[in-house]
Amino acid sequence: MKICFISKDQPWKHRLGGIATYLEEITPYLVRQGHDVYVISKSYGKEEVYEKYGVKIHTVKIPEDNKKVRFLKKVRFFFMEKFFIQLIENMIIFKKFQKLERENDFDVIESDDVSGSSMLISIFYNKPLITRAHGTFYLVEYLNNQAFRTKRKWIQLALIKFMERVQYKNSSLILANSKSTMQLIQQLYRLKRHNLRFLHLPISVQHSAVSEEDKDILLKSLNMPRPFILYAGRIENRKGLRILADAIGPVLRRHQELHLVILGFNNEEETVGIIKYFFNKIGDLRKRIHFKQELARKDTYTVMSCCEFLVLPSIMEPFGYTCTEAMALGVLVVAADGSGYEEQIVKSGVNGLLFKNKDVRSLEAQIEHAITIPLEEKNKIIRRAMERQKYFQSESILKDHTDIYQRIATKEKKDAVITLADSHYVEQAKQLFSSIYHNARWKGDYILLTNGLCKEDEQWFITRGVIIEVVEEFLTPEEKALLDTEEKLNPIMFLKFHLFKEKFKRWKNLIYIDGDVVVSRPIDYLSTIKGFHAVRDYAVSYATPLKYQYMERNEKIPIDKKKRQLIEELKEKMDFEKTAFNAGIFALNTDIITEHTFTELVQLTKKYLLISKYFDQGILNIYFYNTWNELSFHYNFDPFFFNNFFDLHKERFDVVMYHFPSYKNKPWIAGNPYQQLWQENYAIRDSFMKRTVQEKETNASTVKKQDDIIRKVLKSKAAHSL
After folding, report:
1. What digits encode the pLDDT tens for the residues 90-140?
2. How does DSSP classify residue 348?
3. With 80 as the cut, is the pLDDT of residue 652 above it?
4. What global pTM score does this model have?
5. Helix crossing, 241-254 with 268-282: angle to 10°?
6. From CA 451, how far away is CA 501, in angstroms rounded?
7. Strand residues in 514-604 grouped as ranges (E)
8. Do 44 and 50 form a contact (C-beta atoms < 8 A)?
């Protein structure tokens, strides 16, 4: 894909905040994935074109270098110079985009939301546009209490807000860095919820160890005394610096050795106002407050690693790169609650300290706590913080962004087939994907759920475009020990419940298939269904009753009291004579997934683990009781069941999927009559994703006709067999 980013913050050369940090994380990753990436940004110097890590960056001159803007500033045209400056800036960006669009024909555009950077693009181009809600011009002024100081300023900001809203309204998708930001912009700009989505930001902290001697040299060159508390970020009211000024005085008086260092970008008159406010508040402590200009990223990390702890009093913070960077460096963080810090990163007393937003006394108390906290407790918090921030460095977050670009580019959600494998079931997963690819001609995504693979196996799937989702087991060793292993089932089967998490809603339909399945025909019909669909279970008869999911087949074997109580409890909720479904193959539309689905399945598992004969299958039958829809036998055909019970042979039916659920009849076992079928697909596994065989088709009317034959035979045979 060709992706164009629009930004008023210039990555790598002139970083003013989180927007540039975000671009420095996401754009090189996209290049490594084979995409063509461009960035159009403001220039704080001459207009230029350069390349960094494969990212092509085109800069435009900032308004101060523009003759029209200088004229507006002189004459104060209609007292609207700020609005016109932003409008002209957007026009300059638009002109640059027009030129690049003619040359490249971009697939996706992503823009920040500052002053409606891409408002004109959203109006004049019918292109997939993602707006990243970093923080609009209006929102920043609103939080800085600047929006309504004068009537002239209010009118200008209202016009700027209008430009931002136009861009929002015309966007294909709005990505927010936190749920609190998403709610705030939805209210301020009156936006529809369906167009908004929350997505974590990626972060990587690459900082090599620095000797104590080098640290001292840097601090001395910056005239920074030790020990010191650090604030790092923009110097603005919305960052809570006036609250910090009110809280820090009493703390510094109690701890005479401490200093406060404020490291950040100076934002003209507002910065001067904050500095004056600090000095008025602290009086005789002025010499222990140190305002420093923003440093290069490497030096910022070094200074951060030298501080006693980092304090972040922001009134509203969408995400907080500084917070995660400090955690990665092993620095204790004191942050405000009620925004991105609390929502995504910091849990007070666990991996950091939180104070009540805008509460001076609460901030003072937490700063005091950070100073006096026992070393052992502090180290525990830091260790947990370092573990937490690793999540934001995970490749899955970057993959989520890539998936969104691909989805937006195609203007619709994809469907996906999913299987499950641990290190012992890798070859089976390869055969399954090979059979789906070559025989079903599947055009959607392929997903592998796993609890961990070796690098070699992982690389095999990744190079073929398979999405690997590493998930955690939720059963304890003690709980696993309670499982009935008569059927030689693997507890890993419970991991399929992870596909009921909200993150899988990025796909439209999901088709889950066990690794002991051979797919022989197209499965496209399963991507059109609504709700949850599966095939009836054949474990005992052609329509196995639910009671066999939770009881021993041999009634002579006694059931203990606890199991009996659980079974009786289920009987009150379910009709045990109703037909159960087989959970080895099922399809669902992701609209059925809610934020509680996975949690509810886990809770059911913990409760009924003792009596669920077929592990995950019993739990799913409870969860989807009376709501599941039946699929044709073609989608879950156990040839051994049909041969043994009804004397039907595979040659009579051209089915879609062969399933071998019994551990005695796996198709890769020597002597199995279906081994050749399995081996044929396994042999061409390395050509998976190369389209080497002729497409097979299944005529819908033929499927229906064959299905009718099966049903007639089953009904006639069932009358004699049951």
Report:
1. 888 898 998 898 888 788 899 888 888 888 988 888 778 888 887 777 777
2. B
3. no
4. 0.52
5. 30
6. 16
7. 517-519, 532-536, 581-589
8. no
Beta carbons within 8 Å of 440's beta carbon, 6+ residues apart: 519, 521, 522, 523, 524, 696
CB 718 within 8 A of CB 542: yes
Q: Give one DSSP letter per residue of 263-285, joined into a string.
A: EE---HHHHHHHHHHHHHHHGGG
| CATH class held by domain 212-393 | alpha beta
What is the DSSP secondary-structure string of 162-212?
HHHHHHHHH-SEEEESSHHHHHHHHHHHT--GGGEEE-PPP---------H
Buried b (16+ CB within 10 A) or exposed e, 404-415: bbbbbbeeeebb
What contacts 205, CB < 8 A, 6 or more positions away?
301, 324, 325, 328, 329, 389, 393
Q: Calculate the dihedral angle through the C-alpha atoms of 347, 349, 350, 354, rounding to the nearest 10 degrees.
A: 30
Assigned token pair, 621: 């039958």
Long-range contacts of 185-189 (CB under 8 A, 24+ apart): 185/113, 185/133, 185/136, 185/139, 188/138, 188/139, 188/142, 188/161, 189/161, 189/164, 189/165
* Homologous superfamily, domain 413-709: Spore Coat Polysaccharide Biosynthesis Protein SpsA; Chain A (3.90.550.10)
Cross-strand partners of 333: 310
- Give domain limits for the chain: 2-198, 212-393, 413-709
* Phi, psi dihedral angles at 381 (to 5 degrees): -60, -45
Please give the structure tokens belonging to residue 113: 């939301």
Q: 413-709: same fold as 2-198? A: no
Number of H helices, E strands in the chain: 25, 23
pLDDT in tens, 704-715: 555 565 556 555
Measured CA to CA, the distance from residue 60 to residue 46 in angstroms comes to: 8
Residues 289 and 278: their CA atoms lie apart, in Å, by: 8
Q: Phi and psi of 538, rounded to 5°? A: -105, 15
- Banded pLDDT at 89 (limits 50, 70, 90): confident
| Distance from C-alpha of 350 to C-alpha of 381, rounded to nearest angstrom | 6
Report yes or no: 85 and 72 within 8 Å, Cβ to Cβ: yes
Burial class of residue 451, CB neighbours in 10 A (0-12, 13-18, 19+): middle
Say yes or no to pLDDT of 574 above 50.
yes
Q: Are 252 and 288 in contact (CB under 8 A)?
A: yes
Tally of CA atoms within 13 A in the half-sphere of 231 that contains its CB: 29
Encode pLDDT of 325-373 as tens digits: 888 888 999 998 877 777 778 888 888 899 998 899 999 999 999 999 9
Token pair 């995970």 in the structure block, residue: 394
Distance CA 680, CA 678 (A): 6
- Given the candidates 3.40.50.2000, 3.40.47.10, 3.40.366.10, 3.40.50.200, the CATH classification of the domain at 2-198 is 3.40.50.2000
